[in-house]
Write a structure and sequence with these properties.
This protein is of the alpha+beta class. It is built from nine helices and 16 strands. Helices cover 31% and strands 28% of the residues. Strand 4 (51-57), helix 1 (67-77) and strand 5 form a beta-alpha-beta unit. Helix 1 (67-77) crosses helix 2.
């Protein structure tokens, strides 16, 4: 069966999500998982804590749908949100081929998240559902109707982004599920749950971005730092691009910087966010490398003492440099820029500027470690430079010049 669909046993069927525009409906989504197709209509109610779900079927659809299971799963997943509001969901099952309850739960997440983002910008804690089971001792995920019929056992699993199980419901079970079999079922569901959850988050973001009339002229700078964004806007605005930042997309998830190099971290941000938004995304990873500290703080510069706390990070740097003489206070500011564009190889450039670490801060124009970084050839700290001076010699400025020299060729590919 799986070979006919060109899928592995644990591979999830294709998912498509379409936003519908209906009068007197706050949010409407058509969700298709394989051949299973459902429509979710959501209206927000004034009754705090209320969640009502009505499930209907086309006459041609024969399916055993447990409304109470859908309701209990969604109540658990939406517990925090229901403290402030209520929802009325109308579910229409248009086509059924297995995993109907999972499809309804997954579609409900997208529809409700879309409603909240349109209203107050609230982000739901993501969740997803999948059906897994054993057929002749072989583990399957995302079972079709035929697979459900012949399965020795199968289980509906609902999980949130933190990995907590919100619902475990045995559709068919036997004594063999105790022990190792249950562990295998849970393990087999993990990659499918993650894929479904990521797909729902991506589609929700794409729906929210429909207000952008001409996306090819939009560049997203992967930062919430307005100072950093301003530096990049000076290069791209004159070229006719609309420059946005992460502040314009509050629905985007945070990207963990788990890389071991500046390039790995910048790639993670640029390519992940570009995939989610389908926009060109420019990300940087920058850091201060101090010779006397063996290159520290390096990729941990923004969180040297406290995450993105400039005062704390500067204080820690000064403390660690207390007994270091002037001739050994050499350092480099480094930037790696990664520009990601859907369907293209990413553009990667680097930039550096050499300097020294001061004993006391100087200047008010910069951010980060700028007030402690002295540039000998200008006899100024980075924070004492004018914007024009800084763009000419800074690590980010030099990297951006390299970027722009390659930009047109790369952009037109």
């Amino acid at each position: 069966m799986r070979k006919n669909e060109n899928r592995d046993n644990l591979e999830v069927r294709p998912v498509s999500i379409t936003k519908l525009s209906l009068k007197e409906v706050d949010s409407a989504i058509e969700y298709q998982l394989g051949l299973t197709k459902v429509t979710i209509l959501v209206n927000e109610t004034a009754n705090i804590g209320e969640l009502e779900v009505d499930v209907n079927r086309w006459l041609s659809v024969q399916s055993n749908v447990k409304n109470e299971l859908i309701l209990s799963s969604l109540k658990t997943a939406l517990a925090e949100t229901l403290k402030d509001t209520g929802f009325y969901l109308q579910v229409q099952i248009m086509q059924a081929d297995g995993d109907i309850i999972a499809a309804v739960i997954n579609a409900s997440y997208v529809a409700i998240q879309n409603l909240l983002l349109k209203g107050n910008g609230q982000k739901l804690k993501p969740f997803s559902a999948i059906n897994v089971g054993f057929i002749h001792d072989e583990l399957f995920a995302d079972l079709t109707s035929k697979e459900e019929e012949i399965a020795d056992s199968h289980l509906l699993i609902v999980q949130n982004e933190s990995g907590a199980f919100l619902q475990l419901n045995f559709e068919k079970s036997n004594a063999d599920l105790l022990g190792d079999k249950l562990t295998q079922l849970l393990g087999g569901a993990m990659s499918g749950l993650s894929e479904l959850m990521g797909n729902s988050q991506k589609q929700t973001i794409l729906i929210q971005n429909e207000h952008i009339e001409n996306q090819k002229d939009v560049i997203l700078i992967a930062t919430k730092n307005e100072g950093k964004a301003t530096e990049f806007k000076r290069f791209f605005n004159p070229l006719g691009f609309k420059v946005t930042t992460l502040l314009d997309y509050p629905e985007l998830p945070d990207v963990e910087e788990t890389g071991k190099t500046f390039e790995e971290n910048a790639r993670l941000k640029a390519e992940t966010i570009s995939q989610l938004t389908q926009l060109p995304v420019l990300a940087d990873d920058s850091g201060l490398m101090v010779d006397a500290l063996d290159g520290r703080p390096g990729i941990f510069s923004a969180r040297f003492a406290e995450d993105h706390n400039d005062a704390a990070n500067n204080a820690k740097l000064l403390h660690e440099m207390t007994d270091v003489p002037k001739e050994k206070r050499t350092a480099n500011f480094h930037t790696t820029l990664v520009f990601a564009k859907p369907g293209h190889e990413s553009l990667v450039v680097d930039g550096e500027v050499a300097g020294e670490i001061l004993g006391i801060p100087r200047g008010d124009n910069g951010f980060g470690y700028d007030s402690l970084f002295y540039v000998p050839e200008l006899d100024k700290s980075m924070a004492e430079l004018t914007e024009v001076e800084k763009n000419k010699i800074s690590h980010r400025g030099r990297a951006t010049v390299k970027l722009m020299s390659n930009f047109n060729d790369w952009w037109e590919k």
